[in-house]
Model the fold of this input.
Amino acid sequence: MEGLFAHVAPYVGYVYPNETDIPWTVLIVVYPYLTGLVAGAFTVSSLYQVFGMQRFKPVAHFALLTSLCLMLFVPMPLLLHLGHPERAFNSVITPHVTSAFAVFGYAAGFYVVLLMLENWFVFRPHIVQQAQQASGPLGWFYRVLSLGSYDLSDKAMQYDRKWIFALAVIGIPAAHGLHGYVGFVFGSLKSREWWSSDLMPAIFLFSAVISGTALLIVLYVLSCKLRKIPVDLACVKGLAYTLWGFFLFTLVLEGVEFTSLVYRGREGIDIILQYVTGPLLVPFFILQFGIGSLVPLALLTFMIWRGTTGRALIAGVTASAVLVLLAVLMMRYNVVIGGQEISKTGKGLLTYHPLLFHREGLVAAAAVLVAPLLFLLVMVRLFPPWAEAPAVSAPPSRHAGAPI
Amino acid sequence: MKKEAITSLVARRSFLRRIGAAAACAGAVATTGALGVAKKVAAKSKAASSGGSFPTPDYDWSKRRWAFGVDATKCIGCLRCVEACKTENGVPLDASHFRTWVERYVYLEGERNARIDSQSDPRNIAATGSGKEYRFDNRYKDAKVEKAFFVPKLCNQCEHPPCVQVCPTGATYRTKDGVVLIDHKYCIGCQYCVQACPYGARYFIHEKGVTDKCNWCYHRITRGMQPACVEVCPVNARIFGDRNDPASPISQFIRNNRVQVLRPETGNAPNCFYVGIDKEVS
Done:
């Protein structure tokens, strides 16, 4: 008899029999989280490359490299989730244009190429320098990567800068489009009241920007500690402003979405309210909104208001960033898993219990989250993104604004 | 050295220019395609499939318009349909995979809402303890029941199926005769269709890595037979036939009754027509 309930998630009330086998697991939580970090990190790099905000110079190239490292791992959770990962390219070979998922292959592919190109231009001086100096396999690596172009003259650099600018400009709608579309994957479904919302793409987008910014803050401060160099306070403050501003937008959007869901009070709202005040109380109200959102928002507001600086600023902003990373992860969890725990019948609630060691288990999900960071650790050694490294450092002069 | 540098710069420039030209071409194609795509992505798009060929000889899917009827006033909840379906279609013999199921609605005296369960309820599964046989347990025998009825459920083979709309590969498609099928050799197992179906008709076969659902026994109906569940129903609660034929049981059923569909507000336009269901059924 045990075997009969092998895939059955515990539930209360009435749920459709097939619903007891929950389709999307914790890996599908990781997927929008990763794409969000990509879009957010890219936004920060664009603030420097496109909008010429000088204070982001210390993290601009690092942000771009982070974006690339994360993006390369974005397909991983999806591939691990698919019943037939070897057929994944079917959606690219014969895309079914009415499906939001069919766009993924093209959008992600385009964006990976764009990120690789932009990174190549940005790190070209370093690549060329290493190609001429390094020997052995590493020398070969850089020589292949240089694509035979060793020209570092002023003219060539100016030419590169033009390309970096153009790619960064194209990258903004590409990154944001990619993530807005992830929100559409959920928001466009009419089968679940919890997902079905026009605001979903916008919410995903803004939370993406804050999560990417928060990740950069944490990684930048951490890297400074590891490199034993002082943290650039102006840069951290700039990141804090960015985080704070986009954070307010995110919270307003999430608030509006939840309020209108409750206010409209359509069929199934009773079970949604029972859900958010019951099983979702801790993950939604306490972790996502309380500890993850209100605490960092209050902390950031206080620091901006008081003009906090020095070590206190770094500690405060880093702590806020860590909490924001938690809040956005919880937001993804509450959307993806929450939507599936509320039955389509509107008369029952399911409980998702993630497995630990499984292709779609918690360990796999954690590995997918950590892998891009380990990859980044290798990449920063191969392509030092720090401002003092010989990289193309100044944004195009005609776009360079005064430090803000 | 200087000359070399200039040559390399020129080469790089021309290479990049070529990439730029290619991107511009792609952009132009995308814009022209966008108008056509916009029409296609609307939920009200036409059937994804076309063409008249079919592996079953002498069957022309452009001549049929299949539909299903459920007379809930007749259903006695014997669950022979569920058992027949599992056997006929090789549905996993467990409590979370069903192509068809039966819901029991019981209003007890003094209670405002119905108590609802299906054969997959743990207590009902325990009644036989088997994945081949299903029974509703007798939990209400001492209760004061005000109103009670059964509602058989299955895939609605919607006119505008949301499952087909969201499939990224086109592995699931709507045939000319109105049945939504799945190509198990092309399905990638993303389960987006499982999410999109508001009726809970789809499920994932873990062993095969693909999704599945009721197809009104397509292998039978294209050979002139009835779906297995219709054939075994002892009380004719399930009605099936071709709407193109005015004398078919389903045409008569729709003509002679005031029929309903489930969740009409979704715009899916189901092709399962119900008689005798209550406000709580969705």
Notes: Chain A touches chain B through 57 residues (CB under 8 Å).
